[in-house]
Amino acid sequence: MKQIPWIKKYAPKNSAEIINQTEAVQKIKEFLIKFPNINKKALLLYGPPGVGKTSSVYAIAREMNYEVVEMNASDVRSARKVHQILDEAIKGKPFFHKGRIILIDEVDGMSGKEDRGGLGALINIVGESKWPIIFTANDPWDPKFKKLRDICELVEFKKLSTLDAYKALKRISISEKLDIDDNVLRILAERSQGDLRSAINDLQTLANL
């Protein structure tokens, strides 16, 4: 039987389980509550890898009864492909939820020569969508993203502390009944440098040895 990745198994199920991102969580909730009666029709969540940007969107969506339609921008370079994936999602109605979030993950993966109009298409879609759009990025400060930054409200996700990572690893260790020394958990937490996703993956790898 295939093992569920622990980053999925222990992803936050609601906003209360999101680790140390209180201000960012509040801004996302306010954006969804006020949409479309707001100045900027999209959010740009930014911060280091593994701090909870994407998982927070899913947790808040579950809590507020929104479905999430996700596109990973790193895999989509052309305007044609963007429209192919998103045109129906930005206009149609969800069947079982009160609303829909269009999540564009890793939008900074579109930088460089590989972009064939995809970024411009995403900017246009913000104005066309009847649903809120949320982008995520590790580093949104490339000059190429200026137009995107101009139409988005920027929301910072802070780097997690070693203690944050250690506490999360400890909870998982207890839940999985692992016989792993606390010092090992602290080393994993410190080595992750605030990337909780990386730390959890390392813990699962260690547990499977």
What does this structure look like?
This protein has about 210 residues and is α/β, with parallel strands linked by helices. It folds into two domains: about 5-155, Rossmann fold, CATH 3.40.50; about 160-205. Helices cover about 45% and strands about 15% of the residues. The chain has nine helices and five strands. The protein has helices at about 5-10, 20-35, 55-65, 80-85, 120-130, 145-150, 160-175, 180-190, 195-205; strands spanning about 40-45, 65-70, 100-105, 135, 150-155. The longest helix is centred in the C-terminal third of the chain and has 14 residues, at about 160-175. The model has no long low-confidence stretch (mean pLDDT about 95).
Descriptors for this entry?
209 residues; Rossmann fold; 2 domains; 14% strand
Judging from the principal axes of the Cα atoms, what is the shape?
Answer: elongated
How confident overall, as mean pLDDT?
A: 93
Query: Which strand order spans the largest sheet, edge to edge or round the barrel?
Result: 2-3-4-1-5
Structure annotation, total helices:
9
CATH topology annotation of the largest domain: Rossmann fold
Number of strands: 5
Question: What is the total domain count?
Answer: 2
Structural class: alpha/beta
The SSE string, one letter per element, is HHEHEHEHEHEHHH
CATH superfamily of the largest domain: P-loop containing nucleotide triphosphate hydrolases
CATH architecture of the largest domain: 3-Layer(aba) Sandwich
Helix % is 40-55%
Q: Report low-confidence residues grouped into runs of 5 or more.
A: none
CATH class of the largest domain: Alpha Beta
